[in-house]
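Listing 4. Sequential folding, example run.
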Amino acid sequence: MNRLDKYRGIIPAFYACYDDNGRISPDRVKALASHLAGKGVKGLYVGGSSGECIYQSVDERKMVLECVMEAVRGRLTIIAHVACNNTQDSMELARHAQEQGVDAIAAIPPIYFHLPPFAIAKYWNDISSAAPDTDFIIYNIPQLAGVALDTALLKEMRKNPRVIGVKNSSMPVQDIQMFLDEGGENMIVFNGPDEQLLSGLAAGASGGIGGTYAVMPELYMRIYELFGKGEIEKARVIQNDCCRIIYHMCSAKANLYAVLKEILKGRGIDIGTVRSPLPGLEAEDYKIAAACAEEISAAVKKYCEKAG
């Protein structure tokens, strides 16, 4: 078995779980982690964009990871996003993640100041040095970070033997092929944009890490399964329906994660709402969330339940 096989498959990005007063809820973190494990996903990506990491303290992020590990340790592949906007805190989270026994850590580049490539490489390598026995995954999300990974920077990072892959959330599918070409053997790339999972798999992605996976994991796992069987047309039909559902979600005034959490609530998993300054649901958004939940249920019934 290839040591990278544990990263192949569908890995939902884990949502921030708050109590009714907006504090991290350990019980709700564990409930969501257990719920997703029960769905049969490959792993969880903890502490990233979907986890509202930039609005949480270092201690809160440690608490979330500890609760996830308590709930699903040994059952799922766990990737902990540890980047903060300073090196010291990022290294602290990396040390903590290794102590918790995660499979990999991940990091975006520092945001706000546009650093030169050599400074970004030093930032990532410093983080990796704090977890020297743990795999490292570069998180490329230029539309939010303001900095894009290129092949020259990836080549520099591959000098670090712990760097095993990229979570690629840039929109061009071509980037996946370019990163795999540059990375060489023992290199993986995750597809990031949920709307193009199938395209990313076709370009060589080992699987996907996505923000809407947690509300409809069955559909994404089915796409992954059908792709593996070479049944591309069937997979394409499901991918298109996933895209339509996402577009409907994004029609709400609220932040997307507020909509996703409301959908989960309708499925019996209450993890609160989003943290300010992210906008929560307005009156008309509840109807959108309910309609999206119905669309998901219908799609799961149509594409997954018949498949057994």
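-- end of first protein; second protein begins --
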Amino acid sequence: MKQKRHAAILKAIARGDIKTQEQLTEELKSAGYLVTQATVSRDIKELGLIKISSASGGYKYAARPEVKRDANQHLNVFSNAVISVESAMHTIVVKTYSGMAPAVAATVDELLGTEIVGSIAGDDTILLIMESPEAAKEMCGRLEGLFSRKGLEDA
């Protein structure tokens, strides 16, 4: 449950200007999470969220930019491990060389986890579950671009 809540927090701060813990608590409650301000405070600390200047004035919560740089370094390493990326209905199948799927999946989860309903990694295959066939096709294109360009320029 904590992982889903963390994903919901990251999605909420990416969507809008979340300026206070109280505002984030209300966002989570409206999404169906029974949380207290203390829980949200712990989640903010665990996620390493920071406050940045907001375009509308004041400050808002954001994820640390270092996480994306670390993920970019991992993607550069793992891009050579990916053999293919294909979508089918609301799922995406990523084929890797033997033994590489768990590491590639962990990087994809860290980088794009808030946009993915769920993921399963075997030895050489990753199954990503999306909300719709359209979302799967769009994400498939993004993943192909990420792995072929070896970076996050368009992520």
